[in-house]
């Protein structure tokens, strides 16, 4: 006697040495009858859960029985199962799919390969049934519809469309809720993707207006975290830019007349007659010029390498501007920028 899940194959049951199949599910043990409604909500839920689990287990047993019977019938006919070159197990032909070149692999392996790619927002329907791993064929769309569930197939189709549109170098806008996509040709000079805040989906079953910054439903005028961060970065950049420019262009301490020095000494005489230091921007009289330079508390130099010193001052003021900005905006203190981009290249 040989046994498969759900069935027994018995030889000589009728005395003539013939094989007889006995279905273990034909005469299951009767269950004890219990009332459908007991008046106890918790107990009723428990009964429902038991019935659901029992039905699921019965379905699994019946499926296993049918599969075992089909395998047994194949063995009787001298036919073999189909090997999967990916997991090296053997399957019924209906449990496998083939690429256009005829290479077969089990459905579980093919689905697993496709889902692994979908996790990275990629599409991969390349054949995995070739033992030499040289086949470049792809599983047909009909096969994909058959083996993938509705959600995964929609994701696959969406990503496939996105890749096709990117291949022709179009800007792509995609609804984060249903995958609907629109492309904007790059030669459209009026379109600026960075300035676009929302996307209106035209899929009749969706029609959701989403935020392109956070991929959530429309929420303006309330700012989402990415919008706040972008606004904060712009504000921080402006603060650093202003601090750097204050080193390049300085102003007379009395009349605020702008002054820019490329060479010469640090003694500046304004058109209004004011004498002041280009290094520390302090005022002094004509008689005390030499008493200011090289003396405490500033120790300013009369002559200096302006490009080198100005770059040092720019970096110092930029760093201080970042600290001051974060002190005023503690909720965005995590934002950072590269202040070196504001430094002179030479």
UniProtKB/TrEMBL annotation:
Keywords of this entry: Metal-binding, Repeat, Transferase, Ubl conjugation pathway, Zinc, Zinc-finger
GO MF term (any one): zinc ion binding
Xref: PROSITE patterns: TRIAD
Keyword Zinc among UniProt keywords: yes
Pathway recorded for this protein: Protein modification; protein ubiquitination
Pfam families: Rcat_RNF216
Domain RING-type: 80-304
CDD domains: Rcat_RBR (cd20336)
PANTHER family according to UniProt: E3 UBIQUITIN-PROTEIN LIGASE RNF216, UBIQUITIN CONJUGATING ENZYME 7 INTERACTING PROTEIN-RELATED
Protein name listed in UniProt: RING-type domain-containing protein
Organism: Streblomastix strix
């Amino acid at each position: 006697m040989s046994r498969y899940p759900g069935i027994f194959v018995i030889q000589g049951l009728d005395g003539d040495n013939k094989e007889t199949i006995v279905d273990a599910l034909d005469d299951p043990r009767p269950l004890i009858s219990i009332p459908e409604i007991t008046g106890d909500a918790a107990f009723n839920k428990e009964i429902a859960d038991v019935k659901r689990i029992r039905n699921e287990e019965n379905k699994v047993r019946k499926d296993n029985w049918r599969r075992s019977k089909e395998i047994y019938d194949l063995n009787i006919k001298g036919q073999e199962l189909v090997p999967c070159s990916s997991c090296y197990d053997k399957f019924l032909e209906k449990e496998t799919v083939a690429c256009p070149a005829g290479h077969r692999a089990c459905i579980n392996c093919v689905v697993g390969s496709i889902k692994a790619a979908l996790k990275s927002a990629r599409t991969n329907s390349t054949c995995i049934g070739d033992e030499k791993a040289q086949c470049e064929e792809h599983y047909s769309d009909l096969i994909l519809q058959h083996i993938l569930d509705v959600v995964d197939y929609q994701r696959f189709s969406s990503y496939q469309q996105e890749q096709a549109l990117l291949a022709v170098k179009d800007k792509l806008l995609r609804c984060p809720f249903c995958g609907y996509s629109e492309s904007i040709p790059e030669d459209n000079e009026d379109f600026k993707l960075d300035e676009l805040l929302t996307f209106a989906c035209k899929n009749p079953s969706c029609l959701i207006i989403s935020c392109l910054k956070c991929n959530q439903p429309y929420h303006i005028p309330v700012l989402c975290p990415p919008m706040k961060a972008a606004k904060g970065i712009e504000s921080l950049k402006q603060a650093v830019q202003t601090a750097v420019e204050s080193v390049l262009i300085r102003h007379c301490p009395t009349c605020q007349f702008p002054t820019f020095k490329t060479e010469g000494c640090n003694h500046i005489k304004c058109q209004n007659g004011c004498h002041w230091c280009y290094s520390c921007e302090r005022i002094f009289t004509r008689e005390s010029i030499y008493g200011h330079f090289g003396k405490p508390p500033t120790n300013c130099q009369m002559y200096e390498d302006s490009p080198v010193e100005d770059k040092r001052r720019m970096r110092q003021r930029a760093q201080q501007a970042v600290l001051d900005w974060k002190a005023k905006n503690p909720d965005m203190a995590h934002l950072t920028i590269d202040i070196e981009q504001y430094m002179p290249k030479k």
